[in-house]
Amino acid sequence: MSNTNQIPTSRIEAFSDGVIAIIITVMVFDLKLQEIPTDKTIWKELIKIAPKFISYAISFLTLAIMWVNHHQLFHQIKHTDRKLLWYSIHLLFWMSIVPFGTNFIGANPLLWQASFFYGIIFFMSALSFTMLRNYVIQTNLLHESINKQAHIKIRNKNRIALSIYLLAAFLSLVSVYISFALFLVVPTMYFIPEKITHLEK
Amino acid sequence: MSNTNQIPTSRIEAFSDGVIAIIITVMVFDLKLQEIPTDKTIWKELIKIAPKFISYAISFLTLAIMWVNHHQLFHQIKHTDRKLLWYSIHLLFWMSIVPFGTNFIGANPLLWQASFFYGIIFFMSALSFTMLRNYVIQTNLLHESINKQAHIKIRNKNRIALSIYLLAAFLSLVSVYISFALFLVVPTMYFIPEKITHLEK
Amino acid sequence: MSNTNQIPTSRIEAFSDGVIAIIITVMVFDLKLQEIPTDKTIWKELIKIAPKFISYAISFLTLAIMWVNHHQLFHQIKHTDRKLLWYSIHLLFWMSIVPFGTNFIGANPLLWQASFFYGIIFFMSALSFTMLRNYVIQTNLLHESINKQAHIKIRNKNRIALSIYLLAAFLSLVSVYISFALFLVVPTMYFIPEKITHLEK
Amino acid sequence: MSNTNQIPTSRIEAFSDGVIAIIITVMVFDLKLQEIPTDKTIWKELIKIAPKFISYAISFLTLAIMWVNHHQLFHQIKHTDRKLLWYSIHLLFWMSIVPFGTNFIGANPLLWQASFFYGIIFFMSALSFTMLRNYVIQTNLLHESINKQAHIKIRNKNRIALSIYLLAAFLSLVSVYISFALFLVVPTMYFIPEKITHLEK
Asked: Does D85 touch chain C (CB under 8 A)?
């Protein structure tokens, strides 16, 4: 098994793409009108699934950010090893729980437990991504030309995201609306600084 | 992140293929007989799911056209960048809502709201595709050998498609049958002119 | 669009793999015990889903044969063009209906209509595969080294399969058990002659 | 068909990745609260789905181990042939039944039949993997540089896993808790020795 270290990253990328594509897409199948509506009840039914649509959109966006970061990270990795496979699978496990959280909060938006679990699932996903990134940096799996400093900067951003998700989970006990706001903060955080980086170049 | 601009398009193509493959396929799981039929009730049950079958076929065809165009566009793109990833994800988001619209119109073909949302979802999908194409043309991500004029021609065809979908959405208030006809016009439009192009060569 | 003809087959292969992987796999989610069983009712519940399991296995096998043939055919194709994409999508459309037929016959094995539609769906899938193969042979998309004679031989085998599926569909009116037997003949036909070919070498 | 033997493994790897990604992910859609909970009933509902979550996690882990081994094995295979395709499809068939077993044991953790089928399904999956590995070793499909001895070592580990799954299936008649323990032994077995291998280097 001495040549295990030279395995290219192509297959773990393809497998991750497959898993993330399924997670991100199949959630939409919860978006269904449960009663057969008539012309009179249709708007009431549509309003009833509005929270499901919003939670779908937030989960889609959050998972898409993870995919973009995964894409960027793996583009910079020289080759894979057995441990990297397992760090990736660990990440995919927590990402695969997102549809459960999305369904839970979409069906019961005002229950604090829904926001709590939704926050915890995102926290665990972000944590396993940070663990994956740390492993890659520590074991020198990055291409030599890659600026490690940039990755440490991203890691710091990850840590803020982690804190926000944990905060969102526990502040659901105070008010679920605080949690909702915090779930939107992380995607915003990932979009805005990128713009600044582009300006700096 | 200076080498971000040299990322090949292979992974965004693979991810898009995965997402589109799931969207296009999993819709078929709504095609189920809801009651356990007997020899007497079976035809009544089958006729009941006929609108679901028709809406599945139209959605399959429309999504397939988008995939073919996506395939053709990305074949001509030199490399990807972060913004192109997000234009693609934006397109995939709207395409991922298609199964909701398909289920809605398949279960309630005569409700104008179903045709309205079906039209709006296709409009948003086509709009996000046009935005993706515009970005690619404007930022010179196309291979040098590619005729930009051809893309501008396609963009004009896209604009007609956009108008038809918007028209289909709002004319559902007059009659859903007008909307049904318009949902079939766009696929026809994409098939017939292609033939003419082939003859011109 | 003059370089459209030089598009490699990699992406249509990847997309087909994705669609077929979903079709072949997601059917298993109909294999569910509908009532929560107790120690006493469990065997009755398990026997009730036995036809679903058998229809799943037959569909899995038939789709797997199609995938193997698709794999082999595309390995021998030089490059793709727009028409080949559409012949492939046409094939995928009919293959995507297989889960509907599988669910139908699994839930109502003794209704002749179930066997009828199951047969028709397989007939249409096999027909669209034959159309794809014919197009490839006629337009010289095959690598020069490939023996066209071998493909014509396979086409003849396809024609027998087509006749069997059509026969299975219509003989369901006489007895569904004749149809069941015929559904098993085609996979057997594809396995046994292959062995003979291997012996001939 | 003389060049069939030179077919690269890329497409069977991609197809397997697709199928395994779907199997491993879509199971999560059984993780749903069945009743709409209130603030009072929510914990009772969450506890009710705890066995589903545990069985999901075990299945995810077991399938992930199989994927890692599949990844490693195929990385070392020179090229594919028709028989290798069918050994792979045989493996995928049994892996595709795992969601049925997971749903069964998650919904009825204390029924011995659930543990019995769960064990049998894992046994058949492991058996078909061993058959695939044996075929690869016997027909010299491995790269010359690969140590066959290492594969024979792994095969022995596979045989222990096979015995454990068979034991787990039949000991469910004595106590399902013995089966639960045994389902956890195999993943542990695959993780711990790997660590020792790493230390030996």
From this structure: yes
